[in-house]
Amino acid sequence: MKKICILILFVAIPVFAAEEGSSWTCEGVSSIGFYWRDGSWENQAFAPTNYLFTVGADRGGTLIFSGYQWTFDNCVSSNIVRCSTNVGNAIVMNLSTGEGAVSSIIATAVPPEGEEAQTFMERVQCTRVGD
Q: Which pTM does this prediction carry?
């Protein structure tokens, strides 16, 4: 019996360590951005979006919304978590209040020739999953 308990501890500890991260559901509060059309940027209001934001114990993270998934490799956290990609997609969130912002600026720097594109910033309110 003692060997079984020790075995369970060795198996369970890595599982619990892997689950140190957290997940948040986020609702868009307000959004503003630009839409690239016919060779120029136009102001554009966007409908609020819902997000699923996960930060792992390994400082990695994901943001899933509207059929997109952004992957972050180096989230910085204290009371405020900040994650960004190397192309300018980002999320910033206050862990105490759940208030934050999501943004994408990649298309602003490199608008696609002959195509449509968008760039945006959205305020979000997040709630931790499982609380």
A: 0.75
